[in-house]
Amino acid sequence: MASLTLAQKILSRHVGREVVPGEIIACPVSMALANDITAPLAIKAFADMGAERVFDPARVALVMDHFTPQKDIASAEQVCISREFAARMGIIHYYEGGDAGVEHALLPELGLVGPWDVVVGADSHTCTYGALGAFATGMGSTDIASAMALGEIWLRVPVSIRCVFSGEMPPFVSAKDLILWLISRIGVDGARYKALEFSGAAIDALSVEGRMTMANMAIEAGGKAGLFSADAKTLEYCRLAGYPDPQPVAADAGAEYESEVVCDVSTLQPLVACPHLPENVRPAREADCGPIQQVVIGSCTNGRIEDLRMAASVLKGRKVARTVRCIVLPATPNIWKKALAEGLIATFMEAGCVVGPATCGPCLGGHMGILARGEKCVATTNRNFKGRMGSLDSEIYLAGPAVAAASAVAGRIAEPGML
Amino acid sequence: MKFRGKTHKVGDHIDTDAIIPARFLVSSDPAELGAKCMEGLEPGWINRVAKGDILVAGKNFGCGSSREHAPIAIRGAGIPVVIAHSFARIFYRNALDMGLAVLEVGDGVDAIADGQIIEVDAAKGVIRNEDTGALIPVMPFPEFIRAMLEGGGLVPYTRKRLAERKAQ
Question: Model pTM?
Fold first, then answer.
C-alpha cells in the first residue's frame, strides 16, 4: 500500500481500488446537489439523457437558495420546475421556503454530508464539505444530471497541495483570513485542477465551522477540493447533525504532495481582498478605500452562527454608520433561530442592521442588496469579481465577519481595533 | 474539428460573472443568454461579434461559479471555440459537456492578437494565424475526453450507460 493523500484515500474507497493522481475514474457518489439556478438545466439534461428516475431519491438534494424568496416571475418559475421534478422523482431532500437555507450551510447542518463521502454539486462552492472530510467538488448542471441518473461521475484524481497552518490566532483573526492569505499566496489559479489539503496545529484548533469557511473558498484558488481530516471535532459535529455513524479519515504519513505552503497564523492580521480578484489581499488597516455604502454579513462562506457571534460582538453597543446599509443574512433557518435565542438578532437590529432571510441573494448580485454605480461594499462573501454584486462600476471588498462589522460602524474599511 | 474566424481577445481570469452576469440566469435559452454574452466584461461586447468568430483568452478563463450558462452564452453568441492560455476547471468540464470546443495553448496565446483571422484544426492539434503565419501547437485532449467528445458529449454518454445498465 502506498501512502495516500486525503483525496486519494477517499476516492480509492469509492472505486474499490487504489487510485493515483492523473488517472480518470468513474466514481460512485454519496450525494448529488443542485440549486434553483442550476437544477432546471440539470432536469432538462436528465430528460435528454433518457433517464427516468434518479439513482437514489435519498442521495439527491435540491436546495432553492439563490434567487429565493423568489425575486421575480422567471426565478419563481425556475423553482416550480425543481419542485415538480422533486415530487415526480420522490426526492426526499428538496428544500424551499422556511425549510431552505444556503445550501452549503444547510446540508452539513442536516447531517446529509460527512466524512468519506464523495459529494458533487452544481454549485462551485460544493467544495465546502471538504471541511467534514468529504471529497466534494462543484460541476455544471449536465454533470450533475449524469450523476443523478447514474449515481457516479467521471473525475480526474487530483494532485494535492499541502497547506500547513501553525501557531495561535490573534484576536479577530478568523478562518476567513487564513484562506484569504492562502489565495493571495498561491493566486486565483494556484490550485487549478488540484486539491488543497489543510493541516497543522491552527487547523486542529479551528472549529468545524471555521474549516467550512476555508474549504468553501478552495475554488477561489481554482481548487477542485479543499480537504480536512475528520477528527474528533468533525465526528462530534456530524453526530449532532444526525449523520449516521461518521468515521475518522486522515491522510497517510508520507503521502506525496505536489507542493507545500506553510503559514504561522500568529503573524496574521485581519485581511481584506480588494477589487476585483480574491487574490488582491491587504491587511484591513492598509485597505482604506474611502466611504463604503453597503456591508453584507452572510453567505455559504461566513453566514454561520460563529460568524454572526463575531459580528455581533463588534456591533454590540455600537451603531452602523448612517451612510451604510448593513445587511445580515443568517445562512439557514436554524442559524436564524439560534441567533434570535442568543440575542444576536436584537444586537444587529439595535445597531441598525437590516436582518434578512437565509438566501444567497446579494453575494451573486441576485437581490436583497445590489450595488449602484460607484458604490463600495465590504462583504463576508467569497467573490469580488467586477460587477458581481451589481453595477460594473461598483466594488466589493471581501473580509471576515469582524472586519465587516467594524467597517459597517466606521463607514469605511476598518478592523475592530480601529474603532 | 476545424474552425476559421476572426478573433476577439480578452485578458486573464475572465470570470463567469463577466461571461454572463447572474441576473441573466433566469433563462437557459442559448439565444437569450448569447445576447448577453460578456455583458459583465463590457456592455454591448456582443455587438462586435459575428457568427463563427473565435474567442481568445488569457489564463484561468471561466473562473468562478459552476454556471453552465457561461458556455451556453458563448455558444449562443455564435462562437464555436475558445482558445486560452488555461481554463478554470469547472468551466472546462462544462464547455466539453455543452459541446463548446476549448483549446488550451499556454504561452502560444501570445501569438494571437485581437481582430486577426485564425484557422484551428483541433484534430491535427494546430492553430494557424493567417495574419502572421504563426503556427501554434494545441495540447491534445486526454483519451477519455476524446472518446466522450467523439460520442457527442456527456448526454449521449450517459444515455448509453443507462441503456447498458437496462440491458444487464
Answer: 0.96
Contact B86 A189 (CB under 8 A): yes
Contact B25 A37 (CB under 8 A): yes
Instruction: Verify whether the Cβ–Cβ distance A149 to B162 is below 8 Å.
Output: yes
Distance CA A317, CA A415 (A): 16
Q: Identify the architecture of domain A271-414 in CATH.
A: 2-Layer Sandwich (3.30)
Cross-chain residue pair A150–B27, CB shorter than 8 Å: no
Please give the pLDDT value at position B148: 80
Domain boundaries, chain A: 6-262, 271-414
Given the cut 0.85, state whether the ipTM is greater than it: yes
Mean pLDDT, chain A, as a whole number? 97
Percent composition of chain B: helix, strand, coil (DSSP 3-state, to 5): 35, 20, 40
CA distance B130 to chain A (A): 31
Judging contacts by C-beta atoms under 8 Å, the chain A residues touching residue B18 are: 385-387
Question: What is the domain class of B2-140 according to CATH?
Answer: alpha beta
Same fold? A6-262, A271-414: yes
Check: CB of residue B35 under 8 Å from CB of residue B27: no
**Which amino acid, one-letter code, is at A2?**
A
Q: List the 103-122 stretch of A: residues with Cβ below 8 A of B.
A: 121-122
Cell numbers representing residue A285 in the block: 488597516
